[in-house]
Amino acid sequence: MKKRTPVSVIMTKEVITLSSTDDLMTAEKLFKKERIRHIPVVSGNEIKGMLSYTDLLRISFADAIDENETDVDTVVYNMFTIDQVMAKNLVTVSSTTTIKEVAEILAKKEFHALPVVDGNELVGIVTTTDLINYLLEQF
């Protein structure tokens, strides 16, 4: 295993994003359709926050009903905006941050994804799943 491998090797580069003007129903549909758990919230290419599927679960019944039933969630989702639900004080890394450094951050924090930002521009996202897959490839 290479000790200085940059996170750019394992990060997702084609990032699915939301804008703060999107609604929470749109977010839930993206989570389910794309089978992802974290979506950066951006303004242009600049990251403003991170919405996780767990954030939605805290305010809704997203997992408690059939995928095609949206009445209950719609009422709850209309009570909140993405800005109100997303995490705003983000820890970010650059594309040159090593995988080891990313693993150390994720091991110590209570979140499972890090936006990868170069300058002020979102260039990727790295998750605990990316790390686990990388480690599995080493064996």
From TrEMBL:
Keywords from the named record: CBS domain
Residue span, CBS domain: 11-67, 86-139
Cross-referenced CDD domains: CBS_pair_AcuB_like (cd04584)
Matches recorded under InterPro entries: CBS_dom, CBS_dom_sf, Diverse_CBS-Domain
Keyword Transport recorded: no
The keyword DNA repair is assigned to this record: no
Pfam family, one: CBS
Gene3D superfamilies: CBS-domain
Protein name: CBS domain protein
Annotated organism of origin: Tenacibaculum caenipelagi
